[in-house]
């Protein structure tokens, strides 16, 4: 987990989750926010999450990353390839 300043943790924690990304000022702050969402999921049923719940959280991150790449990054890369020419 990134070690962001306490004042930023307080600021970010006060934001509604749906708009929290608009308030992140760095990749570390975005990481902090996403990690806190995952930790909330892990510990929602008590202090000792089991392996299955941890694995579920990792799976959600993996699927989210793949979907982000597919829907956001790949079209951007395709656009830049057309604009600047293919490397291969």
Structural write-up:
The N and C termini lie far apart (37 Å). With 88 residues, this protein is mainly alpha-helical. The protein is flat, with a radius of gyration of 17 Å. Helix content is 70%, strand content 0%. The mean pLDDT is 91. The chain has helices at residues 6-13, 17-20, 27-42, 51-84. The protein folds into two domains: 1-46, no CATH class; 50-88.
- Overall body shape: flat
The topology string of helices and strands comes to: HHHH
Radius of gyration: 17 Å
Parts with pLDDT < 50 across at least 5 consecutive residues:
none
Distance between the amino and carboxyl termini: 37 Å
Number of domains: 2
Sheet of most strands: none
* Helix percentage: over 70%
Q: Kindly estimate the percentage of residues that lie in beta strands according to DSSP.
A: under 5%
What structural class results from the helix and strand content? mainly alpha
Rounded mean pLDDT is 91
Number of helices: 4
What is the β-strand count? Answer: 0
